[in-house]
């Protein structure tokens, strides 16, 4: 088998490739559904209905999509600069902790400050927490050449343990029975729901706004230009005089801040407090979302909605038919690999010898 | 202080070896892949899949060693997928590896739930016993045969890499693939073989967890050990002997932190929450990476995809 | 005297027969029905310019590529295409232009690779070492089997590359531009080795674009041009360089040369000054040791030398990429920090050696590459926001003025990787020579590192013309090149770089060919050279 670079990509391929990837994903996972003994067709109908088939389904999907958009943006930005930030999960929790630390002190009254200011402080604290967490691996990479994939991954475990320690100790909510949770942030600091009788909150608007801003940043600003150049070819960028090191830590700060913000938005928009299981892997799913979107910020929104729909739909489906919810994770994993292969075919022609 | 007594107690060293064993298998597996020039980030997922597959085989009535073989084959299957993506299609090794980790983990979890939909506590099996019956050496005889296998594997792999034609070919493919091609060897086949074999070892690492260390399959049982192995390979400068030492060193500190936790957590007069002890292994892995970064004499073709006919 | 019916050496049978080899890469016809014959005991030179198809042809022979049409016969038996293994088994060996050696492994490891069956449980190193030293002695190639290849000099590495083939019993040895990285003395030593091989009945296929070498070393010469075999000379000694050049190029090209009769221009002010400049070695990058240099406005100063002696370090230093370990570097009288932007702002235009990986970013568009060095200036960005219209205008001016072609329908938005090497070099040159102020046509000084490597004759002439025009307009040009012909044609003054040291800079006429060759070998003293060993 041989690969030959394409001189130009035909227009139909841009649509056919991801469609083929999606088709393959459904086909492959249908085997798993059949193995569980469930009727395949009905299972998929339930999956789609559960994710997109009703007002309730849509609101649940959009609620789940909100943190995914943010972690997806975090991953997309970092990956564009070839900074493989796999630590979004930890940065999210760090942001959540910081948000609660600022917004939930002293029984929620926090510092004696006006609500607006406190809200901003809470958000800023979350962003800073996430940013600093990614800065360490980024600096280790640029100064010492330490691969950031493993360091960010290991930091995730460390942060989760820290959260557990905090929830057992200083940040424990004494009034809560059962599983440990943190103190809650003040009611006034919580995000308002966008629609009645739903869990969709204004965090979604924040996420959409950031997606648009990021798209503008990449295309129209000098920083965006530098990020794209450094990610494409750091050597040539350095030769041209771009401050590669500075670009890397700026990307690290932005990416970490976005993931930290995801944590704050989850806290402020959903329960209002931190628990150990508040993130069912949003950080890792964010990477999949970014890859599915081709590292494009606007694409991230669509990919996040898709992935969220799958996750929500799978919950619904597994309640109705006896298919374990893990099917959603399998769908997401298979689609990642399928899209990876499909994207390659747009740049290379495959010859079977 | 009691710590000193700890260090000379047999149970402590037994724990060290037990903790180190899956790391030995995993690190050697990653080492083999990286020597051939390929970064295999699928290890975390492959260990989960291997753990599950091995355990399921035994639960279904197979023998323990059969379980180990099935785990190895499972690992090899995922390794073949990884090779297809990174060698045949020359895709990004980072993303392909992460994709495989996600796939293997989710498949194992799904398969477990499909097989056991209504269990509260994980069903158990009878794991490997120790070797006190026939091995006279202390500490070692309280290990399972898998540990013995691991300890013998390291020098075997070292010898294989350094003293056989196949080992030379694998090393060359990781240093300069064009050189291998120019001597009539197939880079694709060598890399694929190394990835598949290495992934088989990763599957065995997972099987150790369910068939020797514990006796059931839990979610989150691998818990980052795979990533620690990736860090240990750098620390070991891609040499099997040093990889063995690194894994033992890691096991030492991990066993130490466990003991300190059990001893009440008040090691230095301060009441340290147990979570901080649990953090130590991961922090150590990061430190190991940083320490090794300066002197990294890594295989020169590592992470560079090779396309035939492009010179 | 062109002779397509090649008279055979009577006793020796045809060792190699290539018939009708054709190969296409996309739209490019690299080889067009090429047929050759080679007998044992003779040296056939394959002559041609860059891009003529020589390397492609031998790569097909060795099995790296598969021909679209045609056949290969070695010793009368057909050679299965596309398998280096088969070629090796048939007795074909190849010394690649870019050595295929692993730096981290030893000489013996590199030579042994592939000589034993993969499933053999033990490596017979002692035997292999014996074979290696045997072959080395037979052909007069000294090596240390346990040495780490990364520590060897270029000449030693080439010896290892040759021994790889000899140890496998090669009957036909292909050498792809072997003297590109050797000093004249090392080249002579190589030729002695080749003569020994030929005396033992081996056949040699020798690729080069250097006319003198080809006439000195080969028995017969075949000339390739644009993929076709255009001429075949049965007796290398009876052919003149002019005939060869004519066959290679196909027309009389008036190489651009500086006007020898032009009065020496009034010495402009010193634009770039290096005094005792030293740069520390790092990894594979050699050091610079106490380099002294004055570049004045209006002159072309050339740095000659064989690759790997510190030219890249010097180019990087003058591009603002490396800090000095000691000594001084002044641009227009000022010391600058090691920051490419500072150098660009000071008026240093840089043309890097590697245009595809360092000069441009393939994924980005033409207009983005055009402003790659200046995007942060006030002209192209305000408060961090790119002024895309201005940037595109700038790119349009460069594309028009420098005749950059091949962007196709996408125009300025085409990715840079869509351009051919020549057009990409024009873009880079245009970017370097076009400052922000279009009224000032040239930068202060131009640092050009191997600017014409891999370009066709027309593109080379165009580039030379622009560099000379820049000189005439007052810029200083520092030309770092491995091509002595280019240097001798263009330069006002020449210095030679060897082992990190620079000779004194002398006027072009003060250098003789012998002196240049000696200096390139690191020996600056008397013209009576040591024996070539």
SS element count, helices of chain A: 13
Round the Cα radius of gyration of chain A to an integer and report it. 21 Å
Mean pLDDT of chain C: 84
Percent strand of chain A equals: under 5%
SSE pattern of chain A, N- to C-terminal: EHHHHHHHHHHHHHE
Quaternary arrangement of the chains shown? heterotrimer
Ends distance of chain A = 5 Å
Give average pLDDT of chain A, whole number.
Answer: 88
Number of helices of chain C: 17
The CATH level-2 architecture of the largest domain in chain C is identified as: 3-Layer(aba) Sandwich
Q: What is the helical fraction of chain A, as a range of percent?
A: over 70%
CATH homologous superfamily identity of the largest domain in chain C = P-loop containing nucleotide triphosphate hydrolases
Number of strands of chain C: 23
Q: Quick one: how many beta strands of chain A?
A: 2
**How is the CATH topology of the largest domain in chain C named?**
Rossmann fold
How would you describe the overall organization of this protein?
The complex is a heterotrimer of chains A (353), B (311) and C (533). By secondary structure, chain A is an all-alpha fold. Chain A has helices spanning 11-35, 40-52, 55-80, 88-103, 115-144, 148-168, 203-220, 222-232, 234-239, 244-269, 282-292, 297-320, 326-347; strands spanning 2-5, 348-351. In chain A, 71% of the residues lie in helices and 2% in strands. Chain A starts with a strand and ends with a strand. Chain B has 12 helices and no strands. Chain C has 4 domains: 1-91 and 171-252, P-loop containing nucleotide triphosphate hydrolases (Rossmann fold, 3-Layer(aba) Sandwich); 98-168, no CATH class; 264-347 and 443-533, P-loop containing nucleotide triphosphate hydrolases (Rossmann fold, 3-Layer(aba) Sandwich); 362-440, no CATH class. In chain C, helix 13 crosses helix 14. Chain C is globular. Residues 525-533 of chain C have low confidence and may be disordered. Chains A and B meet through helix 6, helix 11 and helix 13 of A and helix 5, helix 10 and helix 12 of B.
């Amino acid at each position: 088998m041989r690969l030959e670079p394409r001189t130009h990509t035909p227009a139909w391929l841009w649509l056919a490739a991801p469609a083929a990837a999606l088709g393959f994903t459904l086909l492959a996972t249908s085997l798993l559904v059949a193995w569980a003994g469930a009727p395949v067709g009905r299972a998929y109908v339930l999956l789609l209905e559960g994710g997109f088939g009703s007002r309730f389904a849509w609101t649940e999907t959009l609620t789940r999509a909100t943190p995914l958009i943010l972690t997806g943006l975090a991953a997309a930005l970092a990956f564009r600069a070839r900074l493989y930030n796999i630590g979004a999960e930890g940065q999210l929790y760090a942001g959540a902790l910081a948000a609660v630390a600022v917004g939930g002190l002293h029984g929620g009254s926090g510092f004696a400050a006006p609500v607006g200011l406190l809200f901003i402080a809470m958000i800023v604290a979350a962003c800073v927490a996430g940013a600093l967490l990614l800065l360490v691996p980024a600096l280790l990479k640029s100064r010492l050449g330490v691969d950031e994939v493993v360091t960010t991954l290991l930091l995730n475990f460390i942060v989760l343990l820290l959260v557990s320690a905090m929830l057992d100790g200083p940040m424990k909510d004494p009034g809560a029975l059962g599983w440990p949770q943190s103190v809650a942030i003040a009611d006034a600091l919580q995000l308002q729901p966008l629609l009645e009788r739903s869990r969709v909150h204004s965090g979604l608007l924040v996420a959409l706004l950031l997606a648009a801003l990021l798209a503008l940043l990449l295309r129209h600003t000098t920083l965006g230009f530098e990020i794209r150049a450094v990610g494409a070819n750091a050597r040539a960028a350095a030769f041209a005089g771009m401050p590669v090191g500075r670009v890397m830590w700026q990307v690290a700060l932005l990416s970490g801040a976005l993931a930290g913000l995801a944590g704050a938005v989850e806290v402020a928009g959903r329960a209002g407090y931190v628990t150990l299981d508040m993130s069912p892997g949003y950080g890792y799913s964010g990477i999949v979302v970014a890859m599915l979107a081709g590292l494009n910020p606007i694409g991230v929104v669509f990919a996040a909605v898709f992935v969220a729909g799958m996750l929500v739909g799978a919950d619904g489906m597994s309640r109705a038919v006896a298919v374990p919810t893990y099917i959603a994770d399998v769908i997401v994993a298979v689609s990642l690999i399928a899209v990876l292969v499909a994207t390659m075919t747009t740049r290379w022609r495959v010859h079977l010898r | 202080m009691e710590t000193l007594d700890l260090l000379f107690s047999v149970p402590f060293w037994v724990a060290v070896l037990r903790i180190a064993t899956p790391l030995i298998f995993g690190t050697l597996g990653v080492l083999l892949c990286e020597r051939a020039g390929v970064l295999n980030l699928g290890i975390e997922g492959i260990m989960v899949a291997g753990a599950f597959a091995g355990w399921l085989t035994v639960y279904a009535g197979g023998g323990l060693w059969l379980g180990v073989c099935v785990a190895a084959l499972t690992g090899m299957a995922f390794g073949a997928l990884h090779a297809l993506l990174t060698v045949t299609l020359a895709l990004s090794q980072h993303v392909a590896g992460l994709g495989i980790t996600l796939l293997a983990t989710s498949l194992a979890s799904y398969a477990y739930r499909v097989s056991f939909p209504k269990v509260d506590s994980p069903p158990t099996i009878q794991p490997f016993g120790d070797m006190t019956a026939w091995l006279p050496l202390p500490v070692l005889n309280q290990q399972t045969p898998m540990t013995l296998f691991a300890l013998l594997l390291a020098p075997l792999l070292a010898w294989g890499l350094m003293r056989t034609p196949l080992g030379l070919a694998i090393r060359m493919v990781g240093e300069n693939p064009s050189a291998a091609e120019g001597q009539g060897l197939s880079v694709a086949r060598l890399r694929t073989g190394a990835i598949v074999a290495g992934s088989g070892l990763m599957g065995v690492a997972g099987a150790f967890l369910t068939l020797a260390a514990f006796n059931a399959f839990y979610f989150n049982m691998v818990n980052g050990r795979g990533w620690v192995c990736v860090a240990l390979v750098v620390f070991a400068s891609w040499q099997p002997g040093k990889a063995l030492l690194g894994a033992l060193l890691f096991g030492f500190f991990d066993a130490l932190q466990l003991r300190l936790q059990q001893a009440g957590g008040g090691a230095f007069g301060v009441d340290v929450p147990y979570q901080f002890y649990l953090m130590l292994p991961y922090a150590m892995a990061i430190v190991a990476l940083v320490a090794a970064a300066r002197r990294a004499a890594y295989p020169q073709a590592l992470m560079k995809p090779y396309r035939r006919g492009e010179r | 005297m062109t002779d397509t019916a090649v008279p055979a050496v009577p006793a020796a049978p045809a060792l190699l027969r290539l018939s009708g080899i054709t190969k296409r890469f996309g739209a490019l016809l690299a080889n067009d029905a090429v047929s050759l014959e080679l007998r044992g005991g003779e040296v056939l030179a394959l002559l041609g310019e860059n891009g003529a198809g020589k390397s492609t042809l031998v790569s097909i022979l060795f099995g790296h590529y598969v021909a679209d049409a045609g056949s290969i016969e070695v010793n009368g038996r057909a050679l299965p295409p596309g398998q280096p293994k088969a070629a090796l088994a048939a007795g074909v060996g190849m010394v690649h232009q870019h050595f295929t050696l692993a730096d981290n492994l030893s000489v013996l490891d590199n030579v042994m690779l592939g000589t034993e069956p993969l499933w053999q449980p033990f490596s017979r190193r002692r035997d292999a070492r014996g074979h290696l030293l045997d072959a080395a002695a037979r052909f007069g190639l000294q090596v240390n089997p346990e040495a780490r290849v990364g520590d060897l000099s270029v000449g030693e590495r080439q010896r290892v590359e040759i021994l790889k083939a000899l140890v496998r019993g090669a009957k036909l040895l292909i050498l792809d531009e072997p003297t590109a990285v050797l000093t004249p003395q090392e080249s002579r030593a190589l030729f002695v080795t080749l003569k020994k091989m030929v005396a033992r009945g081996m056949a040699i296929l020798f690729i080069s674009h250097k006319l003198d070498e080809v006439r000195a070393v080969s028995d017969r010469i075949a000339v390739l041009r644009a993929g076709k075999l255009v001429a075949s000379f049965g007796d290398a000694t009876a052919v003149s360089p002019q005939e060869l050049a004519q066959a290679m190029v196909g027309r009389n090209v008036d190489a651009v040369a500086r006007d020898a009769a032009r009065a020496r221009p009034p010495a402009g002010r010193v634009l770039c000054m290096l005094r005792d400049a030293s740069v520390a070695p790092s990894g594979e990058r050699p050091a610079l040791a106490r380099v002294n240099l004055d570049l004045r406005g209006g002159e072309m100063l050339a740095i000659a030398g064989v690759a790997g002696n510190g030219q890249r370090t010097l180019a990087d230093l003058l591009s603002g990429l490396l800090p000095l370990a000691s000594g001084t570097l002044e641009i227009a009288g000022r010391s600058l920090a090691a920051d490419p932007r500072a150098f660009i702002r000071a008026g240093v235009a840089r043309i890097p050696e590697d245009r595809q990986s360092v000069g441009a970013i393939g994924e980005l568009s033409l207009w983005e590459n055009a402003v790659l060095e200046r995007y942060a200036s006030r002209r192209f960005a305000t408060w961090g926001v790119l002024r895309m219209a201005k940037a595109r205008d700038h790119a349009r001016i460069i594309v028009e003025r420098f005749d950059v072609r091949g962007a196709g329908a996408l125009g300025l938005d085409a990715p840079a990787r869509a351009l051919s090497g020549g057009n990409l070099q024009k873009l880079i040159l245009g970017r370097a020579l076009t400052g922000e102020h279009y009224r000032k046509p040239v930068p202060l000084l131009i640092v050009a590192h191997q600017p014409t490597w891999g370009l066709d004759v027309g593109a080379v002439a165009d580039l030379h013309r622009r560099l000379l025009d820049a000189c005439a307009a007052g810029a200083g040009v520092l030309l770092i090149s491995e091509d002595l012909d280019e240097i001798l044609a263009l330069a006002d003054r020449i210095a030679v770089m060897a082992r990190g040291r620079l000779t004194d800079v002398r006027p072009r006429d003060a250098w003789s060919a012998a002196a240049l060759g000696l200096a390139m070998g690191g020996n600056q003293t008397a013209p009576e050279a040591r024996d070539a060993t």
